[in-house]
Amino acid sequence: MTMKTMTRRASLFLTSALFLAGCTVGPRYQPDRMKLPAAFTEDEHPATPDEIARTNAELKEWWHRFNDPELDKLVDRAIAGNYDLQIAGQRILAERALRDVQASAWYPQVDANTTNGDSRYSLNIDNWPLRPGNPANRPGASYLSYGVSASWQVDVFGRIRRSVEAQEHAVEQTIEERRAVLMTMLSSLVSDYMVLRDTQLRLDISNRNIRVAQDAYDLTQRLYLEGVGNTLQIAQAKAELDAQLAAREPLRTHIAQITHALDVLMGQVPGTTEAELKIARPLPKVPDFPATLPSIVLANRPDIRRAERAYAEATARIGVAVAQMYPNFSIPLNFNPNASAMYQLFEAGALSWQFFMLASVPLMHGGKLTGQIRAAQAAAEASRLGYRQTVLQAFREVEDAMAAWHDDVEHTELLHRAAEDSTLASERARKLYGAGLVGFLEVLTTERTALAAENAEAVAQLERLQDAIDLYTAMGAGWQGVGVTAASLPVSLETQNVLARALKQ
Q1: Dihedral of alpha carbons 265, 270, 274, 275, sign
Q2: What CATH class does 26-53+60-104+169-320+394-502 carry?
Q3: Three-class SS of residue 172?
Q4: Which residue, 111, 240, 272, 424, could crosslink 268 as a Cys pair with Cβ 3.0–4.6 Å?
């Protein structure tokens, strides 16, 4: 076959392949449309455009709404140093590399080779003279060869295209998973910080309780020495003092453990920030409720976005399975000149090459191919249902967080009033004691009651802060303001697939 004939056949083959390349088999991905309410049931009114814009701005870096510079610094350090976040980033790179592996099938696979050596044929085999190129007087020969072998698989029915499409969706899932890791890390760090400040506040209350118990113990001892009290009162006062001392130790331990947890979240050795964080700061105020919460905010949640991309990937996998039912076209090429002397390798007589256009058609595989299609279809349907379940679960989490935010307001207000009333009672008891109208034990009792009310209020304030953190997390807030990674691939499917580029698909 002449080079002209070979070129004509190759052109005809490629033209046919390009014509058929538009026949990418398998279903096209269509996003699942769920009928959802426009707003949450716990939201008070329909959202206006200005309120939606304000809510989006508030959710972008929601930890700033607590107005705590120390917290802001910890968040910045955690975003820069958290190891879970870095691990998630490496998973993105790994999936992108696998995407490049899939895309490599679009290109010719070319290998170069060379051979240099000697060979000798046996003279003790019958009919050996019949072997061409091996006369009896030359049983051995030197062999030199170089060449190129290549193969190009023409993606006529879109098997490679669907594989790359599926892998691109897998990359997008890892991006969303990294965003989810970021959200979880932010939620854990802010929550731990609030617990730290609350525990420090409760430690201060505990120290004041110990002082009150110590005063009560000292008073009962003095009264006993004056002949007014008895040993039972001394024992009771001592038991109260010991109980208050014992209650303080778990708080100290908890503070140390929380600082260690914060260090790990920031990618630091536990104990690094202990000196920095041991200085007690006021408990941050609960921010105002978001201006509005339309249901569209759930589009921020990485778990929903990941589930949607998983459905897209599973749909593309159907196309990969369907393409196995269609003919497969490939073009192998081998060019291997060979000779016994170096100067002969580049002569026309040394040329040796093969060029084919191959097509293989699946005929009988015992139901394997159709079974693969059914499995891919079932996996895609499972992904679609999983996406719906993720959306419903997200709605539930937001509704629960909103209900807790609203319902805990009254609870905290009542405890705040109780703390104020108890403090007022303690002040009045001291004034009455100064006037000689009540005993010192009454003063100590009212002080102990006031401190217990303060402690209950501190616990309720922490619950309110946690309600805010839970709501921001449930709405998928936080990753938008952080440059985690680009959501798009640097090389698109259209720019890399020569057939897709030629057909403008």
Answers
A1: negative
A2: mainly alpha
A3: helix
A4: 272
